[in-house]
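Input chain follows. Return C-alpha coordinates only.
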Amino acid sequence: MTMARWWRGAVIYQIYPRSFLDTNGDGVGDLPGIIARLDYVASLGVDAIWISPFFKSPMADFGYDIADYRDVDPLFGTLDDFDRLLAKAHSLGIRVMIDQVLSHTSIDHAWFKESRESRENDKADWYVWADARDDGTPPNNWLSIFGGVAWQWEPRRGQYFLHNFLASQPDLNFHNPAVREATLDNVKFWLDRGVDGLRLDAINFCFHDAQLRDNPPKPAELRTGRGFSADNPYAFQYHHHNNTQPENLAFLEDLRALLDRYPDATTLGEISSEDSLATMAEYVNDQRLHMGYSFELLTDDRSAAYIRGTVEDLEAKMTAGWPCWAISNHDVRRAVTRWGSDAANAESLARQLVALVCSLRGSVCLYQGEELGLPEADVPFEALQDPYGIAFWPNFKGRDGCRTPMPWSGDAQSGFSSGTPWLPVAESHQALSVHVQDAQPDSVLNGVRHLLRWRKQHPALVLGNIRFLDAPEPVLAFVRSERDETLLAVFNLSAQPVRWTLPSELPAVSPLTDHGLVSGEITGNALQLPAHAVFYARLG
Protein backbone atom coordinates (compact mmCIF):
# COMPACT_ATOMS: atom_id res chain seq x y z
CA MET A 1 0.00 0.00 0.00
CA THR A 2 1.33 3.45 -0.91
CA MET A 3 1.49 5.64 2.16
CA ALA A 4 -0.48 8.89 1.77
CA ARG A 5 1.60 11.99 2.30
CA TRP A 6 -1.03 14.73 2.40
CA TRP A 7 0.86 16.27 5.30
CA ARG A 8 3.98 17.08 3.26
CA GLY A 9 3.88 20.81 2.66
CA ALA A 10 0.49 21.07 4.41
CA VAL A 11 -0.61 24.23 6.20
CA ILE A 12 -1.93 23.20 9.63
CA TYR A 13 -4.09 25.72 11.50
CA GLN A 14 -3.72 25.49 15.28
CA ILE A 15 -6.89 25.97 17.28
CA TYR A 16 -6.62 26.71 21.00
CA PRO A 17 -10.17 25.65 21.91
CA ARG A 18 -10.49 27.68 25.14
CA SER A 19 -10.12 30.86 23.13
CA PHE A 20 -11.72 30.07 19.76
CA LEU A 21 -15.50 30.42 20.24
CA ASP A 22 -17.75 29.92 23.29
CA THR A 23 -21.26 28.69 22.42
CA ASN A 24 -22.75 28.17 25.90
CA GLY A 25 -21.86 31.45 27.64
CA ASP A 26 -19.47 30.05 30.27
CA GLY A 27 -16.60 32.18 28.96
CA VAL A 28 -14.58 29.23 27.65
CA GLY A 29 -14.42 28.14 24.01
CA ASP A 30 -15.73 24.68 23.17
CA LEU A 31 -15.96 22.02 20.47
CA PRO A 32 -19.36 23.27 19.20
CA GLY A 33 -17.61 26.63 18.78
CA ILE A 34 -15.02 25.04 16.53
CA ILE A 35 -17.78 23.34 14.52
CA ALA A 36 -19.54 26.70 14.11
CA ARG A 37 -16.39 28.27 12.66
CA LEU A 38 -15.09 25.43 10.45
CA ASP A 39 -16.46 27.17 7.36
CA TYR A 40 -14.28 30.15 8.26
CA VAL A 41 -11.26 27.86 8.70
CA ALA A 42 -11.97 26.28 5.31
CA SER A 43 -12.10 29.77 3.76
CA LEU A 44 -8.45 30.28 4.74
CA GLY A 45 -7.30 27.52 2.42
CA VAL A 46 -5.53 25.46 5.09
CA ASP A 47 -5.14 21.69 4.79
CA ALA A 48 -5.66 20.63 8.41
CA ILE A 49 -6.42 21.80 11.92
CA TRP A 50 -4.55 20.89 15.07
CA ILE A 51 -6.73 21.16 18.16
CA SER A 52 -4.98 21.76 21.49
CA PRO A 53 -6.11 19.46 24.35
CA PHE A 54 -9.83 19.14 25.02
CA PHE A 55 -9.63 15.99 27.19
CA LYS A 56 -10.93 15.56 30.73
CA SER A 57 -8.67 17.63 32.96
CA PRO A 58 -8.63 19.70 36.17
CA MET A 59 -7.10 22.43 33.92
CA ALA A 60 -4.10 23.19 36.11
CA ASP A 61 -2.18 23.64 32.84
CA PHE A 62 -5.31 24.27 30.75
CA GLY A 63 -5.71 20.78 29.38
CA TYR A 64 -2.09 19.68 29.14
CA ASP A 65 -2.72 17.88 32.44
CA ILE A 66 -4.93 15.00 31.32
CA ALA A 67 -7.13 13.04 33.73
CA ASP A 68 -8.78 10.84 31.07
CA TYR A 69 -7.21 10.41 27.62
CA ARG A 70 -10.39 8.95 26.14
CA ASP A 71 -13.02 11.52 27.08
CA VAL A 72 -13.83 15.15 26.39
CA ASP A 73 -13.88 17.53 29.33
CA PRO A 74 -17.44 18.80 29.94
CA LEU A 75 -16.02 22.33 29.63
CA PHE A 76 -15.47 21.64 25.92
CA GLY A 77 -18.42 19.35 25.18
CA THR A 78 -18.81 15.62 24.59
CA LEU A 79 -17.42 12.81 22.48
CA ASP A 80 -20.48 13.21 20.25
CA ASP A 81 -19.45 16.84 19.70
CA PHE A 82 -15.99 15.67 18.69
CA ASP A 83 -17.44 13.15 16.24
CA ARG A 84 -19.58 15.92 14.71
CA LEU A 85 -16.52 18.15 14.46
CA LEU A 86 -14.58 15.41 12.70
CA ALA A 87 -17.41 14.75 10.22
CA LYS A 88 -17.90 18.47 9.45
CA ALA A 89 -14.16 19.04 8.96
CA HIS A 90 -13.86 16.05 6.65
CA SER A 91 -16.86 17.23 4.63
CA LEU A 92 -14.99 20.52 4.08
CA GLY A 93 -11.79 18.75 3.06
CA ILE A 94 -10.00 19.59 6.30
CA ARG A 95 -7.90 16.99 8.12
CA VAL A 96 -8.05 16.90 11.92
CA MET A 97 -5.00 16.52 14.16
CA ILE A 98 -5.27 16.37 17.94
CA ASP A 99 -2.78 16.96 20.73
CA GLN A 100 -1.49 13.93 22.59
CA VAL A 101 0.35 14.54 25.85
CA LEU A 102 2.07 11.22 26.45
CA SER A 103 4.93 11.95 28.88
CA HIS A 104 2.82 12.96 31.89
CA THR A 105 -0.74 12.93 33.23
CA SER A 106 -2.71 14.92 35.76
CA ILE A 107 -2.54 13.98 39.43
CA ASP A 108 -6.28 13.38 38.98
CA HIS A 109 -5.71 10.54 36.50
CA ALA A 110 -6.89 7.16 37.84
CA TRP A 111 -3.44 5.69 37.17
CA PHE A 112 -1.76 8.21 39.46
CA LYS A 113 -4.42 7.99 42.15
CA GLU A 114 -3.69 4.27 42.40
CA SER A 115 0.08 4.61 42.03
CA ARG A 116 0.44 7.12 44.88
CA GLU A 117 -1.36 4.90 47.42
CA SER A 118 1.42 2.38 48.02
CA ARG A 119 4.58 0.82 46.65
CA GLU A 120 2.90 -2.55 45.99
CA ASN A 121 -0.24 -1.87 43.93
CA ASP A 122 -0.74 -2.65 40.21
CA LYS A 123 0.20 0.88 39.17
CA ALA A 124 3.03 1.30 41.70
CA ASP A 125 5.68 1.52 38.99
CA TRP A 126 3.67 3.53 36.44
CA TYR A 127 5.21 6.87 37.47
CA VAL A 128 8.75 7.99 38.29
CA TRP A 129 9.11 7.44 42.02
CA ALA A 130 12.34 7.78 43.97
CA ASP A 131 13.50 7.71 47.59
CA ALA A 132 14.76 10.83 49.28
CA ARG A 133 18.45 11.26 49.95
CA ASP A 134 19.59 10.58 53.50
CA ASP A 135 18.98 14.23 54.42
CA GLY A 136 15.43 14.17 53.05
CA THR A 137 16.18 16.22 49.93
CA PRO A 138 15.10 15.11 46.43
CA PRO A 139 17.01 12.30 44.74
CA ASN A 140 18.84 14.57 42.28
CA ASN A 141 19.13 18.14 41.02
CA TRP A 142 16.55 18.03 38.20
CA LEU A 143 14.44 21.14 37.76
CA SER A 144 10.98 21.85 36.39
CA ILE A 145 10.48 24.05 33.34
CA PHE A 146 7.76 25.84 35.30
CA GLY A 147 10.13 26.79 38.09
CA GLY A 148 11.75 25.08 41.06
CA VAL A 149 12.61 21.49 41.88
CA ALA A 150 11.22 18.76 39.58
CA TRP A 151 10.33 16.47 42.50
CA GLN A 152 7.24 16.49 44.73
CA TRP A 153 6.99 14.62 48.04
CA GLU A 154 4.15 12.11 48.39
CA PRO A 155 3.54 11.13 52.04
CA ARG A 156 1.42 8.06 51.21
CA ARG A 157 4.43 6.33 49.67
CA GLY A 158 7.15 8.21 51.50
CA GLN A 159 8.76 9.00 48.13
CA TYR A 160 9.20 11.76 45.62
CA PHE A 161 7.60 11.74 42.17
CA LEU A 162 9.06 13.45 39.10
CA HIS A 163 7.33 16.33 37.31
CA ASN A 164 9.15 18.06 34.47
CA PHE A 165 6.32 20.60 34.31
CA LEU A 166 3.83 21.49 37.09
CA ALA A 167 3.77 19.51 40.34
CA SER A 168 0.24 18.48 39.30
CA GLN A 169 1.69 16.85 36.13
CA PRO A 170 3.50 13.69 37.29
CA ASP A 171 5.76 12.02 34.73
CA LEU A 172 4.90 8.52 33.57
CA ASN A 173 7.55 5.81 33.81
CA PHE A 174 8.08 4.75 30.20
CA HIS A 175 10.68 2.21 31.28
CA ASN A 176 7.65 0.13 32.30
CA PRO A 177 6.34 -1.83 29.25
CA ALA A 178 2.78 -1.70 30.63
CA VAL A 179 2.89 2.11 30.49
CA ARG A 180 4.04 2.06 26.88
CA GLU A 181 1.30 -0.42 25.94
CA ALA A 182 -1.43 1.58 27.71
CA THR A 183 -0.19 4.78 26.04
CA LEU A 184 -0.37 3.21 22.58
CA ASP A 185 -3.86 1.90 23.36
CA ASN A 186 -4.98 5.47 24.15
CA VAL A 187 -3.53 6.70 20.86
CA LYS A 188 -5.31 3.87 19.02
CA PHE A 189 -8.62 4.99 20.54
CA TRP A 190 -8.44 8.29 18.61
CA LEU A 191 -7.05 6.77 15.44
CA ASP A 192 -9.97 4.34 15.41
CA ARG A 193 -12.28 7.33 15.85
CA GLY A 194 -10.96 8.78 12.61
CA VAL A 195 -8.42 11.48 13.48
CA ASP A 196 -5.92 12.25 10.73
CA GLY A 197 -2.92 13.02 12.88
CA LEU A 198 -1.38 13.54 16.28
CA ARG A 199 0.58 16.52 17.49
CA LEU A 200 2.81 14.99 20.17
CA ASP A 201 3.48 17.37 23.05
CA ALA A 202 6.96 17.29 24.62
CA ILE A 203 7.58 13.95 22.92
CA ASN A 204 11.26 13.81 23.92
CA PHE A 205 10.26 13.82 27.62
CA CYS A 206 8.80 10.31 27.71
CA PHE A 207 11.89 8.65 29.17
CA HIS A 208 14.17 9.71 32.01
CA ASP A 209 17.62 8.48 32.95
CA ALA A 210 16.94 5.29 34.93
CA GLN A 211 20.01 5.97 37.11
CA LEU A 212 18.64 9.42 38.07
CA ARG A 213 22.02 11.07 37.50
CA ASP A 214 22.41 14.79 38.21
CA ASN A 215 22.30 17.17 35.29
CA PRO A 216 25.58 19.08 34.81
CA PRO A 217 25.61 22.87 35.30
CA LYS A 218 25.53 25.19 32.30
CA PRO A 219 27.80 28.27 32.18
CA ALA A 220 25.94 31.58 32.47
CA GLU A 221 26.94 32.70 28.98
CA LEU A 222 25.29 29.62 27.43
CA ARG A 223 21.94 29.99 29.18
CA THR A 224 19.41 30.50 26.42
CA GLY A 225 15.76 29.52 26.50
CA ARG A 226 13.46 27.74 24.09
CA GLY A 227 10.01 27.83 25.63
CA PHE A 228 11.55 29.22 28.83
CA SER A 229 13.61 32.32 29.59
CA ALA A 230 17.31 32.49 30.36
CA ASP A 231 16.62 33.67 33.94
CA ASN A 232 14.56 30.53 34.67
CA PRO A 233 16.69 28.17 36.82
CA TYR A 234 15.83 25.47 34.25
CA ALA A 235 18.28 27.24 31.93
CA PHE A 236 21.10 26.75 34.46
CA GLN A 237 21.55 23.04 33.55
CA TYR A 238 22.33 20.83 30.60
CA HIS A 239 19.26 18.58 30.44
CA HIS A 240 21.13 15.41 29.60
CA HIS A 241 19.25 13.10 31.96
CA ASN A 242 15.64 14.23 32.50
CA ASN A 243 14.63 14.01 28.83
CA THR A 244 15.74 12.93 25.32
CA GLN A 245 16.94 9.49 26.41
CA PRO A 246 18.07 6.85 23.88
CA GLU A 247 15.29 4.47 24.96
CA ASN A 248 12.76 6.87 23.46
CA LEU A 249 13.78 5.89 19.93
CA ALA A 250 12.41 2.35 20.28
CA PHE A 251 9.13 3.73 21.63
CA LEU A 252 8.83 6.08 18.65
CA GLU A 253 9.29 3.08 16.37
CA ASP A 254 6.48 1.26 18.18
CA LEU A 255 4.32 4.36 17.82
CA ARG A 256 5.11 4.56 14.09
CA ALA A 257 4.28 0.87 13.64
CA LEU A 258 0.83 1.64 15.09
CA LEU A 259 0.41 4.70 12.83
CA ASP A 260 1.39 2.69 9.76
CA ARG A 261 -1.80 0.68 10.26
CA TYR A 262 -3.64 3.95 9.50
CA PRO A 263 -1.96 4.99 6.24
CA ASP A 264 -3.53 8.46 6.05
CA ALA A 265 -2.58 9.40 9.62
CA THR A 266 0.48 11.42 10.53
CA THR A 267 2.51 12.49 13.56
CA LEU A 268 4.04 15.87 14.40
CA GLY A 269 6.43 15.84 17.33
CA GLU A 270 7.14 18.91 19.46
CA ILE A 271 10.84 18.69 20.32
CA SER A 272 12.70 20.88 22.81
CA SER A 273 16.08 19.51 23.83
CA GLU A 274 19.67 20.66 24.31
CA ASP A 275 20.11 20.47 20.53
CA SER A 276 16.56 20.46 19.21
CA LEU A 277 17.59 20.31 15.55
CA ALA A 278 19.82 17.27 16.13
CA THR A 279 17.01 15.58 18.08
CA MET A 280 14.56 16.34 15.26
CA ALA A 281 16.96 14.70 12.82
CA GLU A 282 17.10 11.63 15.04
CA TYR A 283 13.36 11.46 15.68
CA VAL A 284 11.96 12.14 12.20
CA ASN A 285 12.30 9.49 9.49
CA ASP A 286 10.37 6.65 7.87
CA GLN A 287 10.60 4.49 11.02
CA ARG A 288 9.80 7.14 13.65
CA LEU A 289 7.88 10.42 13.44
CA HIS A 290 6.51 11.77 10.16
CA MET A 291 7.29 15.40 11.08
CA GLY A 292 8.95 17.34 13.85
CA TYR A 293 9.00 20.95 14.93
CA SER A 294 11.02 22.83 17.50
CA PHE A 295 11.06 26.22 19.20
CA GLU A 296 13.97 27.35 17.04
CA LEU A 297 11.94 29.98 15.15
CA LEU A 298 9.83 30.87 18.20
CA THR A 299 12.67 33.08 19.41
CA ASP A 300 13.32 36.82 19.64
CA ASP A 301 16.08 36.63 17.02
CA ARG A 302 14.53 37.45 13.64
CA SER A 303 17.69 38.21 11.71
CA ALA A 304 18.18 36.78 8.24
CA ALA A 305 21.38 35.13 9.43
CA TYR A 306 19.58 33.37 12.29
CA ILE A 307 16.70 32.13 10.13
CA ARG A 308 19.08 30.94 7.41
CA GLY A 309 21.42 29.29 9.92
CA THR A 310 18.54 27.49 11.66
CA VAL A 311 17.05 26.11 8.45
CA GLU A 312 20.43 25.16 6.97
CA ASP A 313 21.43 23.44 10.22
CA LEU A 314 18.27 21.33 10.16
CA GLU A 315 18.63 20.61 6.42
CA ALA A 316 22.17 19.35 7.01
CA LYS A 317 21.20 17.16 9.97
CA MET A 318 17.77 15.87 8.94
CA THR A 319 18.51 14.27 5.60
CA ALA A 320 15.72 11.67 5.80
CA GLY A 321 12.92 13.52 7.60
CA TRP A 322 10.34 16.21 6.91
CA PRO A 323 10.32 19.44 8.96
CA CYS A 324 7.43 21.58 10.09
CA TRP A 325 7.91 25.28 10.85
CA ALA A 326 6.05 27.64 13.14
CA ILE A 327 6.75 31.20 14.23
CA SER A 328 3.73 31.44 16.57
CA ASN A 329 1.87 29.13 18.92
CA HIS A 330 0.08 29.10 22.27
CA ASP A 331 3.34 29.18 24.26
CA VAL A 332 5.15 32.28 22.93
CA ARG A 333 4.51 35.97 22.29
CA ARG A 334 2.72 36.56 19.02
CA ALA A 335 5.09 36.94 16.08
CA VAL A 336 3.91 40.40 14.99
CA THR A 337 4.98 41.69 18.42
CA ARG A 338 8.02 39.45 18.89
CA TRP A 339 9.50 40.16 15.47
CA GLY A 340 7.87 43.55 14.87
CA SER A 341 9.85 46.74 14.70
CA ASP A 342 7.47 49.36 13.31
CA ALA A 343 3.78 49.68 14.11
CA ALA A 344 3.27 51.71 10.92
CA ASN A 345 4.09 48.62 8.87
CA ALA A 346 2.26 46.09 11.06
CA GLU A 347 -0.03 44.84 8.27
CA SER A 348 2.73 44.28 5.72
CA LEU A 349 4.83 42.63 8.45
CA ALA A 350 1.95 40.28 9.35
CA ARG A 351 1.55 39.24 5.72
CA GLN A 352 5.30 38.84 5.28
CA LEU A 353 5.64 36.58 8.34
CA VAL A 354 2.96 34.21 7.03
CA ALA A 355 4.63 34.24 3.61
CA LEU A 356 8.02 33.53 5.16
CA VAL A 357 6.97 30.49 7.16
CA CYS A 358 4.95 29.23 4.17
CA SER A 359 7.98 29.52 1.88
CA LEU A 360 10.44 27.42 3.89
CA ARG A 361 10.89 23.75 3.03
CA GLY A 362 8.46 21.77 5.16
CA SER A 363 4.95 21.85 6.50
CA VAL A 364 3.56 24.87 8.35
CA CYS A 365 1.71 25.50 11.59
CA LEU A 366 -0.29 28.74 11.67
CA TYR A 367 -1.71 29.73 15.06
CA GLN A 368 -5.25 31.10 15.30
CA GLY A 369 -5.19 34.87 14.85
CA GLU A 370 -1.95 34.82 12.90
CA GLU A 371 -4.06 35.26 9.76
CA LEU A 372 -5.45 38.46 11.30
CA GLY A 373 -2.04 39.88 12.19
CA LEU A 374 -2.92 39.94 15.90
CA PRO A 375 -0.30 41.50 18.18
CA GLU A 376 0.42 40.17 21.67
CA ALA A 377 -2.33 41.16 24.11
CA ASP A 378 -1.39 42.99 27.29
CA VAL A 379 -2.98 41.01 30.13
CA PRO A 380 -2.75 42.70 33.56
CA PHE A 381 -1.39 40.64 36.44
CA GLU A 382 -4.78 40.45 38.18
CA ALA A 383 -6.31 38.83 35.07
CA LEU A 384 -3.51 36.27 34.50
CA GLN A 385 -4.52 32.61 34.40
CA ASP A 386 -1.25 30.94 33.36
CA PRO A 387 0.55 29.44 36.41
CA TYR A 388 3.84 29.83 34.53
CA GLY A 389 3.30 33.58 34.13
CA ILE A 390 2.08 34.06 37.70
CA ALA A 391 5.23 32.31 39.01
CA PHE A 392 7.68 34.33 36.91
CA TRP A 393 5.96 37.74 36.90
CA PRO A 394 7.03 40.44 36.09
CA ASN A 395 10.16 39.36 34.16
CA PHE A 396 8.12 36.81 32.21
CA LYS A 397 4.42 37.48 31.84
CA GLY A 398 3.52 33.94 30.83
CA ARG A 399 1.54 32.70 27.88
CA ASP A 400 -1.80 34.43 28.36
CA GLY A 401 -0.97 37.29 26.00
CA CYS A 402 -1.12 34.96 23.00
CA ARG A 403 -4.13 33.01 24.33
CA THR A 404 -6.76 35.75 24.58
CA PRO A 405 -10.10 35.19 22.82
CA MET A 406 -10.28 35.16 19.03
CA PRO A 407 -11.87 38.43 17.84
CA TRP A 408 -14.81 37.56 15.59
CA SER A 409 -16.56 40.95 15.70
CA GLY A 410 -15.99 44.43 17.08
CA ASP A 411 -18.38 44.24 20.04
CA ALA A 412 -17.38 44.24 23.71
CA GLN A 413 -16.55 40.52 23.84
CA SER A 414 -15.47 40.40 20.17
CA GLY A 415 -18.23 37.90 19.38
CA PHE A 416 -16.35 35.26 21.39
CA SER A 417 -18.82 34.74 24.24
CA SER A 418 -22.11 35.95 25.68
CA GLY A 419 -20.55 35.60 29.12
CA THR A 420 -17.35 36.80 30.75
CA PRO A 421 -14.37 35.42 28.81
CA TRP A 422 -11.78 33.37 30.74
CA LEU A 423 -9.18 35.92 29.59
CA PRO A 424 -10.01 39.53 28.78
CA VAL A 425 -10.60 40.44 25.13
CA ALA A 426 -7.76 42.62 23.89
CA GLU A 427 -8.83 46.13 22.88
CA SER A 428 -6.06 46.14 20.28
CA HIS A 429 -7.69 43.14 18.60
CA GLN A 430 -11.18 44.58 18.08
CA ALA A 431 -10.27 46.63 15.00
CA LEU A 432 -8.63 43.48 13.59
CA SER A 433 -11.66 41.21 13.99
CA VAL A 434 -12.73 38.69 11.37
CA HIS A 435 -15.91 40.71 10.72
CA VAL A 436 -13.92 43.89 10.05
CA GLN A 437 -11.23 42.25 7.93
CA ASP A 438 -13.67 40.13 5.92
CA ALA A 439 -15.11 43.31 4.46
CA GLN A 440 -11.72 44.83 3.58
CA PRO A 441 -10.28 43.50 0.30
CA ASP A 442 -6.76 44.60 1.32
CA SER A 443 -6.88 43.21 4.89
CA VAL A 444 -4.29 40.84 6.32
CA LEU A 445 -7.00 38.14 6.46
CA ASN A 446 -7.85 38.37 2.78
CA GLY A 447 -4.17 38.64 1.94
CA VAL A 448 -3.45 35.39 3.78
CA ARG A 449 -6.37 33.65 2.07
CA HIS A 450 -5.01 34.73 -1.30
CA LEU A 451 -1.46 33.72 -0.42
CA LEU A 452 -2.36 30.21 0.76
CA ARG A 453 -4.27 29.50 -2.42
CA TRP A 454 -1.47 30.97 -4.54
CA ARG A 455 1.10 28.80 -2.74
CA LYS A 456 -0.78 25.64 -3.68
CA GLN A 457 -0.28 26.49 -7.35
CA HIS A 458 3.51 26.30 -6.93
CA PRO A 459 4.91 22.80 -6.26
CA ALA A 460 8.32 24.33 -5.55
CA LEU A 461 6.90 26.12 -2.47
CA VAL A 462 4.93 23.10 -1.25
CA LEU A 463 7.41 20.27 -1.80
CA GLY A 464 10.62 21.67 -3.25
CA ASN A 465 14.15 21.60 -1.88
CA ILE A 466 15.76 24.79 -0.56
CA ARG A 467 19.07 26.54 -1.21
CA PHE A 468 20.00 29.84 0.41
CA LEU A 469 21.75 32.67 -1.39
CA ASP A 470 24.31 34.98 0.19
CA ALA A 471 22.72 38.32 1.03
CA PRO A 472 23.49 41.05 3.59
CA GLU A 473 21.14 41.82 6.49
CA PRO A 474 18.22 42.36 6.45
CA VAL A 475 17.74 40.37 3.22
CA LEU A 476 16.84 36.68 3.34
CA ALA A 477 17.01 34.97 -0.06
CA PHE A 478 16.64 31.38 -1.15
CA VAL A 479 15.72 29.18 -4.11
CA ARG A 480 13.03 26.47 -3.99
CA SER A 481 13.01 23.78 -6.69
CA GLU A 482 10.62 20.93 -7.48
CA ARG A 483 10.73 19.09 -10.81
CA ASP A 484 10.42 21.68 -13.57
CA GLU A 485 9.68 24.68 -11.30
CA THR A 486 12.42 26.79 -9.69
CA LEU A 487 11.45 29.87 -7.68
CA LEU A 488 13.45 32.65 -6.09
CA ALA A 489 12.10 34.03 -2.77
CA VAL A 490 13.53 37.22 -1.26
CA PHE A 491 12.42 38.89 1.99
CA ASN A 492 13.30 42.33 3.32
CA LEU A 493 13.07 41.67 7.06
CA SER A 494 13.30 45.35 8.01
CA ALA A 495 10.98 48.35 8.17
CA GLN A 496 13.22 50.33 5.78
CA PRO A 497 13.57 49.91 2.00
CA VAL A 498 16.68 48.04 0.85
CA ARG A 499 18.50 47.38 -2.41
CA TRP A 500 20.05 43.98 -3.16
CA THR A 501 22.28 43.19 -6.09
CA LEU A 502 21.12 39.93 -7.64
CA PRO A 503 23.81 37.22 -7.78
CA SER A 504 25.36 37.08 -11.25
CA GLU A 505 25.00 33.29 -11.43
CA LEU A 506 21.19 33.41 -11.28
CA PRO A 507 19.44 32.40 -14.52
CA ALA A 508 16.79 34.64 -16.07
CA VAL A 509 14.52 36.15 -13.37
CA SER A 510 10.80 36.45 -14.18
CA PRO A 511 8.97 38.26 -11.34
CA LEU A 512 5.71 36.80 -10.01
CA THR A 513 3.26 39.51 -9.03
CA ASP A 514 0.02 37.61 -8.42
CA HIS A 515 0.69 36.68 -4.78
CA GLY A 516 -0.87 39.86 -3.38
CA LEU A 517 2.07 40.85 -1.14
CA VAL A 518 4.12 44.03 -1.01
CA SER A 519 6.74 43.14 -3.62
CA GLY A 520 9.88 44.61 -5.19
CA GLU A 521 11.16 45.78 -8.53
CA ILE A 522 14.21 44.85 -10.57
CA THR A 523 16.16 47.74 -12.01
CA GLY A 524 19.22 46.61 -13.92
CA ASN A 525 20.89 43.92 -11.83
CA ALA A 526 19.45 45.12 -8.52
CA LEU A 527 16.28 44.35 -6.60
CA GLN A 528 14.57 47.27 -4.85
CA LEU A 529 12.57 46.07 -1.84
CA PRO A 530 10.16 48.25 0.20
CA ALA A 531 9.72 47.68 3.95
CA HIS A 532 8.70 44.09 4.74
CA ALA A 533 8.54 43.25 1.04
CA VAL A 534 8.40 39.74 -0.41
CA PHE A 535 9.71 39.10 -3.92
CA TYR A 536 8.99 35.87 -5.77
CA ALA A 537 10.26 35.07 -9.25
CA ARG A 538 10.62 32.17 -11.65
CA LEU A 539 14.18 31.26 -12.54
CA GLY A 540 15.26 30.03 -15.95
